[in-house]
């Protein structure tokens, strides 16, 4: 079969004069300035939205009692006092609450990461009956209202004599942190190629060694992100700590409410000063570990 | 070989159990343990232990609070040293107290004496763990109104520690500036007074509650307009009187005689700046308001005002407010009963407590003490407001908080113009009836 050859046409493109680089720059500049202004405006608005509560906390913490309650409120304080920070420093009980918070949050973070690493690895790299059911079961615990679980956990801990102990706090916090940590870490382990595991097996590494010396270092950012999430959860919890702890094991959130919020009065300036101080460890942890946090949270998002 | 294909081996053993069976067994076991742990403690009316034990527990939110903590601790320490015993204290924040107490009382963790808001007494008494204190109540010399505040279903479950009421507080300086020579006694006079106060620059005539959290303050006004709210078990919200009350509230709102989005804390803050003519508060609210007040000399200007009535001769309405000490049956309950009686009725103890916290005593002798009688604000309050105060209409119901919120939401719907007074009160009445039955 023959086909008629189409006549070859050559269309000459009109030749446009290429502007010199300096002129191109000049033409792009207004666009760039416009998009820059839009971007900075967006950043400023979002930043303001996020930072305003923090600023208001600071203003209230630095205001004398009378001024903190004036109406309409003053955006820039006219009188400044450090009295509320001083009263926090002088309160030994608050220091005890802080120590309890550090202990409980750190153990929660460590326990969550350890357990979630093994569970996530198992869900990701092994195939066995009931795997999917177990994965869904782990996730399902996130779907119950916390107040409902509080009553159940309270009854269980009471039966086992764990009320008022660090163990009760750590176990209850871990109940809530673990599902997300497991799924986060499973996603990260999914991105580790099986070929790497096979190579390790060929070289004679046991499964145990493969996980600890090859996979875990690769998943470190994810593990740090999971740990940070668990730490913050343990640090901020109020209702479980209030219900399951006693005077000696009370953590900061219920401790602060106990100290500053009363039936008729709330010492807002002192509460704000205390809240600012106690947020320092969490902010410091975030600043120190933020590059891992971002990397860890997104590591499992895309599979190779 | 891929690691993913290396697993899945069946568990083998003498019993021939596979992994699925093992999982099932494990699940059943876990369920069993949880069920055993969550099982009710047998509905016991006592938390067990030796009732004659000298040591006991004491639970109170006052043990947390900056102002009251040292005074309560002083009472506890004095008891411990004079009776050679140990009182184990437990404290929860006021707003979480009822929830925590209910949970822990049911779990058998709370023993001895428990401080209760009188609004919670019915809910806690219904748990069946409290001791009947009828036999010792007669020894205290309490006033009638105080004694009644500790009763539920005809039984004396609590000894009154503080009895007051929630009523109107006025700023005498502003009232004088507005040309109000006498405190208003009727609704019509009250409206005139509010309009006169509105003429003053920057003044909120009446910082009435308009936020849902505090809109239960509408109940005394409903009663003022003639609504009984509850007649036996029948809810009367929705009748003409309740509609009149809410529409009157709406009128004040529309005329800007009351302000938008105000709760008790806002009202105190505004009153503390000397910009409010009237607001609703408990007798102890004076101290809370003054603690953050900018206006100098405000203490002398604060006056209790009986709630105006619909027509002359009606009884002013007020909500009873206060606290009682109840005793949990079981470990140390006898000593806890003595402690409760001592704390609430010992002359020196109650007068000292009053002088530090301005919480009026509950005994006739205590009220007559020169130190108490010298405080004209408190004595006026007791005489003019507390005397005719009545308990909250729904305190006897475990769902009291939900009931109050249901009514408050409908009142707010009227205030913001989303519903008419008639429709809103009809709906509120239906919702409350359903909550009572549920």
From TrEMBL, chain A:
Region (Disordered): 1-27
Membrane topology: Multi-pass membrane protein
Keyword vocabulary terms for this entry: Cell membrane, Membrane, Sugar transport, Transmembrane, Transmembrane helix, Transport
UniProt subcellular location: Cell membrane
Cross-referenced InterPro entries: BP-dep_ABC_trans_perm, MetI-like, MetI-like_sf
Domain ABC transmembrane type-1, residue spans: 98-289
One Gene Ontology CC term in the entry: plasma membrane
Gene Ontology biological process terms in this record: transmembrane transport
Top-level taxon of the source organism: Bacteria
Presence of keyword Membrane: yes
Spans through the membrane: 37-58, 97-121, 133-157, 163-185, 214-232, 268-289
Family classification: Belongs to the binding-protein-dependent transport system permease family.
Record-given protein name: Multiple sugar transport system permease protein
High-level lineage: Bacteria, Bacillati, Actinomycetota, Actinomycetes, Kitasatosporales
From TrEMBL, chain B:
Keywords: Signal, Sugar transport, Transport
GO molecular function: maltose binding
Gene3D superfamilies the UniProt entry points to: Periplasmic binding protein-like II
GO cellular component: ATP-binding cassette (ABC) transporter complex, substrate-binding subunit-containing
GO terms under biological process: maltodextrin transmembrane transport; maltose transport
Keyword Heme: no
Membrane-spanning residues: none
Family to which this protein belongs: Belongs to the bacterial solute-binding protein 1 family.
Protein name per the record: Multiple sugar transport system substrate-binding protein
């Amino acid at each position: 079969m023959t086909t008629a050859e189409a006549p070859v046409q050559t269309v000459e493109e009109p030749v446009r004069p290429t502007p010199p680089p300096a002129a191109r720059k000049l033409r792009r500049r207004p666009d760039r300035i416009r998009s820059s202004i839009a971007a900075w405006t967006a950043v400023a608005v979002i930043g303001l939205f996020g930072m305003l509560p923090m600023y208001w906390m600071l203003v209230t913490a630095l205001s004398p009692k009378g001024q903190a309650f004036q109406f309409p409120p003053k955006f820039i304080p006219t009188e400044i006092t450090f009295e509320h920070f001083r009263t926090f420093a002088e309160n030994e009980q608050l220091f005890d609450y802080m120590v309890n918070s550090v202990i409980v949050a750190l153990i929660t973070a460590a326990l969550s990461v350890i357990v979630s690493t093994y569970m996530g690895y198992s869900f990701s790299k092994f195939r066995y009956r009931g795997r999917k059911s177990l994965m869904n079961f782990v996730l399902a615990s996130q779907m119950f209202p916390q107040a409902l679980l509080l009553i159940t956990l309270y009854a269980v801990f009471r039966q086992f004599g764990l009320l008022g102990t660090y163990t009760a706090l750590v176990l209850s916090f871990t109940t809530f942190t673990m599902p997300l940590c497991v799924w986060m870490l499973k996603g990260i382990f999914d991105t580790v190629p099986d070929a790497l595991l096979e190579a390790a097996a060929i070289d004679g590494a046991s499964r145990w060694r493969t996980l600890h010396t090859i996979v875990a270092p690769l998943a470190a950012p994810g593990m740090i992100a999971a740990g940070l999430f668990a730490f913050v959860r343990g640090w901020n919890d109020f209702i479980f700590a209030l219900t399951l702890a006693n005077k000696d094991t009370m953590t900061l959130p219920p401790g602060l409410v106990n100290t500053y919020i009363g039936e008729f009065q709330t010492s807002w300036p002192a509460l704000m000063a205390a809240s600012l101080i106690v947020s320092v460890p969490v902010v410091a942890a975030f600043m120190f570990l933020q590059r891992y946090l971002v990397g860890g949270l997104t590591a499992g998002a895309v599979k190779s | 070989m891929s690691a993913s294909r290396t697993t899945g081996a069946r568990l083998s053993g003498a019993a021939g159990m596979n992994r699925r069976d093992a999982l099932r067994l494990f699940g059943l076991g876990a369920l069993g343990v949880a069920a055993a742990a969550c099982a009710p403690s047998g509905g016991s009316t006592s938390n067990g232990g030796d009732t004659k034990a000298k040591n006991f527990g004491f639970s109170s939110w006052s043990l947390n609070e900056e102002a009251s903590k040292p005074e309560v601790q002083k009472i506890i320490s004095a008891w411990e040293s004079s009776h050679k015993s140990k009182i184990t204290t437990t404290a929860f924040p006021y707003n979480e107290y009822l929830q925590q107490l209910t949970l822990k009382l049911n779990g058998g963790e709370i023993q001895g004496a428990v401080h209760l808001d009188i609004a919670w007494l019915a809910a806690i008494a219904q748990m069946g763990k409290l001791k009947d204190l009828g036999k010792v109540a007669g020894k205290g010399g309490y006033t009638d109104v105080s004694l009644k505040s500790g009763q539920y279903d005809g039984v004396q479950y609590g000894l009154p520690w503080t009895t007051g009421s929630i009523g109107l507080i006025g700023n005498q300086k502003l009232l004088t500036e507005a040309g109000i020579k006498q405190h208003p006694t009727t609704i019509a006079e009250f409206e005139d007074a509010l309009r006169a106060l509105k003429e003053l620059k920057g003044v909120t005539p009446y910082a009435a509650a308009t936020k849902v959290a505090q809109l239960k303050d509408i109940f005394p006004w409903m009663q003022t307009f003639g609504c009984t709210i509850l007649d036996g078990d029948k809810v009367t919200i929705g009748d003409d009187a309740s509609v009149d009350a809410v529409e009157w509230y709406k009128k004040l709102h529309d005329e800007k005689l009351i302000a938008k989005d105000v709760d008790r804390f806002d009202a105190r803050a505004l009153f503390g700046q000397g910009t409010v003519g009237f607001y609703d508060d408990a007798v102890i609210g004076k101290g809370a308001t003054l603690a953050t007040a900018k206006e100098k000399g405000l203490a002398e200007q604060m006056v209790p005002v009986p709630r105006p009535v619909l027509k002359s001769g009606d009884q002013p309405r007020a909500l009873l407010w206060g606290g009682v000490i109840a005793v949990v049956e079981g470990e140390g309950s006898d000593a806890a009963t003595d402690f409760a009686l001592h704390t609430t009725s010992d002359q020196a103890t109650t007068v000292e407590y009053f002088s530090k916290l301005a919480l009026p005593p509950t005994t006739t002798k205590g009220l007559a003490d020169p130190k108490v009688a010298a405080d004209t604000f408190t004595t006026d309050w007791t005489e003019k407001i507390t005397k005719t105060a009545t308990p909250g209409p729904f305190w006897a119901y475990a769902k009291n908080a939900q009931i109050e919120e249901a009514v408050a939401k409908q009142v707010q719907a009227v205030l913001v113009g989303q519903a008419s007074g008639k429709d809103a009160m009809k709906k509120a009445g239906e919702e409350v009836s359903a909550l009572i039955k549920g």
